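Form 7-S
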Amino acid sequence: MTEGSSDPYSLLGIAPQSSFEEVQAARQAKLDAVGDDPMARSRVEAAYDAVLMDRLKERQQGRVSSAARSASQKETVPQTPRPPLAQLPNLPSLPMPRLGGGMAKPGSGLSFSLAAGRERWFPLIGHGLLLVSTLVFPAAAPDALLALAALLTLINLQRRNGHFLRSVGWTLLLLALGLGLAQLLLISLPSPLLQALPLQAYQVQGAIGILALLLGALFIG
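Output:
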């Protein structure tokens, strides 16, 4: 790794048009090379995060990088034959951006295991601060706190399994599950008990939603 360089591609020793698999391999090779040096490992992880955010920014802006095109050309996905749609006009084929091997349904290749190292303390600290803010500061915007918790979960799931779209699916599912459980709890509580709670209803919903996101970030591999 070149010391003092701020270019994440140079830090990882890859080109901007490298495929996602090459980025992953470069990150692992650099981590293996630096050993247990915390500062060097931190620089490798920061460069890897910067490359992922650069790719994600390109897709959000509607651009497809040369790396995504090369990755699409290298990967072949078996598809079941479909009957031709003769009644539809021919449409130009568009290159589809792919990140992390394409879209996968939650549950495909699913494994549950407690995260270790950075993937454990990152959500514990981040979600913990958001949970405290939700419970202690009633004036805090619950929607903003939940959005931040969902973003932290998405980042951690992406780190653990390397599938961006699968991570998005799990994040949305966990958020919906947490809010649904909170709503059921509020409905089932008797009115006197609900009024005696020192928390507002939106605080309860936010806290349970953040807890659901935290558990998913820690245990979904």
